[in-house]
Amino acid sequence: MRETEHEAETGKRPLGVGMVGYSFMGAAHSQGWRTVGRVFDLPLRPVLSAVCGRDGAAVRAAADRLGWAAAETDWRALVARDDVDIIDICTPGDSHAEIAIAALDAGKHVLCEKPLANTVEEAEAMAEAAERARARGQVAMVGFNYRRVPALALARQMIADGRLGTLRHVRLTYLQDWLVDPGFPLTWRLRKDRAGSGALGDLGAHIVDLAQFLAGEPVAGVSALTETFVRERPLLDGVSSGLTGEGSTATGQVTVDDAAVFTGRFPSGALASFEATRFAAGRKNALRLELNGSNGSLAFDLERLNELSFHDHTEPATSSGFRRILVTEPGHPYLEAWWPPGHGLGYEHTFVHQAHDLLHAIATGEQPEPSFAAGLSVQRVLAAVEESAAKNSVYTLVAATPVTV
């Protein structure tokens, strides 16, 4: 008997998923939807009803490869399908608001990749649509998948339980290097009209969300610097508007930031520092954070995502220090359904956990986190960073005579 037939016999109500977009994030989300019911005991049975993309041949091939029952080339047709209950948005940011609001107004639940939108105004409209839909029993969630790393979920529990005492410092960095080569082409992620911002929205959104998630309070103020190191890049097709270099390789202007560095303050008085860049040579996906409080500290490195470092400052100095917590025990967040202790998880499992949490929220009627309101909170911080960077007055130190430093 095929597994799908076995699932149908369990009596669990099917919930049809329709996904828009099928590239990197679409593949990751598909992995989550395919796997979640095979690992967790769910209240609902997710069904991969249809995937949507503009290129008919490509989206049909993606449907076959990723496990979707059907393919659509118009997201409006996807939203209108009777066999779709959840719309999962994995497209560039310029289409998030239109698709999400239409889906919510059509009575669908919505999962939207981060950042929520390209502007605060779009994010506000999405949050308002989610609030209206909430009154009808629908839910909307933002895909900040790093919240679903078991070690970070455990860190949140420990902080909420007071293990760090009064929070003093939050510092986060997210470093990648895929733009170091100036010959890398001008993709949609380097265009403000498509992506909204560069490293700030792509990577900075994650660490802003994690800072607020772990601290349990919103960022209240920022001071920022941003930079675009390579301002022109080769065009993918060589024919887009704004090209230069006639008779040579056609190029177009990069209209987003390559890196952002900013400080922040929480209402409690805790200080925060953030760095997001796609120009850190040798760093592929280095998300690192540390939180310091009056009673202890926590540290995490995504490249060691099954581990959490904890220092208990209430212990005697003669025996205290950072210790490694291997986050693979059944009592740790999400781990009860996976492997025996010591058998670690990976990046793809965060999307399984994301699907798990959304399905449980739909079944219970509870608001899943992060909500669209939480996504709007992140969007406001990103906008404040851009405004601060644009207006920042840097005090320049000029030595009267040459100084060796």
TrEMBL record:
InterPro entries: Gfo/Idh/MocA-like_OxRdtase_N (IPR000683), Gfo/Idh/MocA_oxidrdct_glycsds (IPR050463), GFO_IDH_MocA-like_dom (IPR055170), NAD(P)-bd_dom_sf (IPR036291). The keyword Transmembrane helix does not apply. It comes from the Bacteria. Keywords: Oxidoreductase. Residues 154-298 form the GFO/IDH/MocA-like oxidoreductase domain. Pfam families: GFO_IDH_MocA (PF01408), GFO_IDH_MocA_C3 (PF22725). Residues 16-139 form the Gfo/Idh/MocA-like oxidoreductase N-terminal domain. This is Gfo/Idh/MocA family oxidoreductase.
